[in-house]
Every structure is written in C-alpha cells, then in structure tokens.
Amino acid sequence: MILQILRDPQNGCPWDKVQTHMSIRMNFLEEAYEAVDALDAGDPELLCEELGDVLMQVAFHAEMEQETGNFTWQDVCDGVCRKLIYRHPHIFGATPGTEGINDWDSLKNKEKGRVTLADELNSVPRAMPALMRAAKLQKRADRCLGSQPVDCNTMEAAIRQLSVPDPDPRDAEQALGRLLFETVRLARAAGLDPEQALERYNLQFVQEHCGLDNTD
C-alpha cells in the first residue's frame, strides 16, 4: 500500500511518516468541503478528484490505526458493509419488503445503544458547523419531546440585549447564541436548511460585492 511506504519509519516521506490523527484533522474537513464544492459545481471530473482526496484521508487514518494494531483498512470496509446490511432489513432481511426505510433511525439507535434523549443529543458530532449541529440537536429533541414552536419572545429579547451600547461580552455571546438557535428553529419550521440558506446568502454576498473595489 502506498501509504505504508510513505509512512515507513526509515525510508518514508519526512512529512507523511510523522503525521498524527490530530495533525491532519483539518485536512480531512478541508477535503470534505472541497468535495461538496465539486458536487455543487456539477463538475464530474473535479468530483472524481476530490472524492479521491477524501478517500486518501480515510486511508491515511486507517493506516495509522493499523500501525498501532487497533484496526485495519479491511476492518473499516467490512464495518460499513455490515452496517448497510443491518440498516436495510427491508432489502437484506429474512423477508425483504416487510420493514420500510422509516425504521432507519430506530435501527441506528438500537445499534448505537441510544436509549435516552441525552444519548441522542450527546451523539451529535461537536465538530459539525454550528448551524448544522443546532438543527440536528433540535430534530432529535423533537423526536422525543414533540415539535417545539419558535420562541419569538426569546429572539426579541436577544435582539434587545445585543442592541444596547457596550453590552457585557459574556451576556452578549449568550444572547447571540439563543438568537441563532431560535433562528435555526425558525428555518426548520419553514422547511429550510439553515446551513444551506446561509451558505447561499454568503455566495450572493460575494457575487454582489466582488466588483465594488474596481469601481471609480
């Protein structure tokens, strides 16, 4: 395997052989974002390249674990295949077609040993972009507690708190967090993805302002 050669302690690449999970953590995120950009661009050639870069990151981390004896690349592939089979009993079960795809969440929770709301919330990755994580947290809470209405009073109070002159930084941060969290709930109530909505407005902002520095 190429990565085994690159990470050889004696003859490997000086950079590759000293990397750790944490030293290339951001590389993983960056490659994933670049792959998503290729998806959005509808560019098959670029997508092929970027998916390869993501795959390389997966292989890199798997190689590190193989070196320590924790698991191998084959274990990674075997694990995801088993997961797909387990979560599709309506396809691979003893009686295909008797269970629908709506069982996905319950099967996933059973597989992960999630029983309580706390289990559900604590399993949402902290490394997710904040708007995306807020939407996921709300969705999981709604499954257990029922759909919660948008708290307009909280939003108005947060705006007032942020509008005062020289607000206390800690209080202002708390208020902004509440405002953004409720804004995510507002987006979900409208059937919108808040992360995608902000991403698209970011793009619109860039397009509207790109030529401003060249105007007379």
Write the layout of secondary structure elements.
Layout: H1 2-6, H2 25-41, H3 44-68, H4 73-86, H5 89-92, H6 104-112, H7 117-122, H8 130-145, H9 152-163, H10 169-189, H11 194-209
Structural class: mainly alpha
Uncertain regions spanning at least 5 consecutive residues:
none
What is the terminal-to-terminal distance? 57 Å
The gyration radius over C-alpha positions equals: 23 Å
Number of strands: 0
The residue fraction in helices comes out at 55-70%
Please write the string of helix (H) and strand (E) elements. Answer: HHHHHHHHHHH
Provide the β-strand percentage band.
under 5%
Question: Could you report the average pLDDT, rounded to the nearest whole number?
Answer: 90
Protein model, in words:
The chain is built from 11 helices and no strands. It is globular, with a radius of gyration of 23 Å. It has 216 residues and is mostly helical. Helix 2 packs antiparallel against helix 3 (44-68), helix 8 packs across helix 10 (169-189) and helix 9 runs antiparallel to helix 10 (169-189). It starts with a helix and ends in a 7-residue tail after the last helix.
Question: Summary?
Answer:
The chain has about 220 residues and is mainly alpha-helical.
